[in-house]
Amino acid sequence: MNKGRGGNSGKPGSAGKITRTSRGTSNATTRTASAGSKPGSKPKSGGSKPTSKNEHPNKKNVTDRDKRKYIDYKQKVKKGDPMPKFSDDSIRLNKYLSNAGVCSRREADVFIANGIVSVNGEIVTEMGYRVKLTDIVKYGDESVSPATKRYVLLNKPKGFITAFDDALGRKTVMSLVKKACKEQLYPVGRMEKEATGLFFFTNDGDMMKKLIHPQYKAKKMYHIEIDKPMSKEDIEKMISGIDLEDGRTFFDKIEYVKGNARELGIELTSGKNSVARRALESLGYKVHRVDRVQYAGLSKKDLPRGNFRHLSESEINFLKMS
Predict the structure, then answer these.
(1) Using alpha carbons only, what angle is made at residue 244 by residues 239 and 246, rounded to the nearest 5 degrees?
(2) Domain spanning 151-321 has what CATH number?
(3) Which whole number is the average pLDDT over 4-15?
(4) Per the count of CB atoms within 10 A, which of 156, 183, 255, 290 is most buried?
(5) Residue 144: exposure state from Cβ atoms within 10 A (0-12, 13-18, ≥19)
(6) Smallest Cα–Cα separation from 247: which of 285, 273, 221?
(7) HEC profile of the chain
(8) Are 203 and 146 in contact (CB under 8 A)?
(9) Interhelix angle for 205-212 vs 313-321, to 10°?
(10) Which CATH class is domain 91-144?
């Protein structure tokens, strides 16, 4: 039985598969109308609009710690952090220096203003000055060359945290890609310590920014094993939207793997931390295994667990253009 969001019946289809194809006008109108009200606000006199408390009687109270731990990236950039634009023709001088590892962009602005940086033999003090990759850039008397951009995909094993480093001395994914290249790589996004599957690294700041930007909506697909068969009603709840500590989350597609209701293929674009696990646990399921099998259109085919590979030119262009 296939069901879309908000549907109570559907045409016969493949068993165990429910796909959200569209949100529907009525649902969108409802969410838009409720978005303007603040939690706990009183209704206007003469109105019949219920308070947030009445609208969501089962919604959990969100502590400051929860907000810091689980806040969606979308909320951090909602005031207008634009999507990055990829251009190989020219680059801002401060970014050029930062990419080369000379300093941060802010420090580069200070060096440029003080006349320490030259381009093709001429001192440049103009903020926002753009240089081409063929230009000769010098910091003082030393020539500066931009770092080669690298894009690396890892099939992450269990037991590694996805941080750049760890004060507690735990194993990080950085140890698994230290031989990938001489340039410094940075992890993109996050995964649970015990989760396995695709994880991405790069030293391309624009690519990193794009992949975690809410407007891009990088699609992720997981193979998840749970302790008991999942009902179709619970699948529909997750597709229709489920309330968690950090707000409502929607799942794009959920289906049984090879007809086994204890193994799920879950597709989503949310960047919230451990969101699939938390959604399943809120419905009373215990998660035994989480494996990310696809990330932003990239597959782990022919990539053994614990190994990494560099993206092909066509894959890099796909990520830039999609």
Answers:
(1) 120
(2) 3.30.2350.10
(3) 43
(4) 156
(5) buried
(6) 273
(7) CCCCCCCCCCCCCCCCEEECCCCCHHHHHHHHHHHCCCCCCCCCCCCCCCCHHHHCCCCCCCCHHHHHHHCCHHHHCCCCCCCCCCCCCCEEHHHHHHHCCCCCHHHHHHHHHCCCEEECCEECCCCCCEECCCCCEEECCEEECCCCCCEEEEEECCCCECCCCCCCCCCEHHHHCCCCCCCCCEEECCCCCCCEEEEEEECCHHHHHHHHCCCCCCCEEEEEEECCCCCHHHHHHHHHCEEECCEEECCCEEEEECCEEEEEEEEECCCCCCHHHHHHHHCCCCEEEEEEEEECCEECCCCCCCCEEECCHHHHHHHHHC
(8) no
(9) 60
(10) alpha beta
User: Which tens digits make up the pLDDT trace of 18-47?
Assistant: 444 444 444 444 444 444 444 444 444 444
For residue range 182-223, what is the model confidence (pLDDT) as tens digits?
Answer: 888 999 998 999 999 999 999 888 898 889 887 788 899 999
- Indicate where the chain has its CATH 3.30.2350.10 domain(s): 151-321
**71: pLDDT strictly greater than 70:** no
Residues of the chain with CATH 3.10.290.10: 91-144
Which residue shows structure tokens 């381009």?
Answer: 119
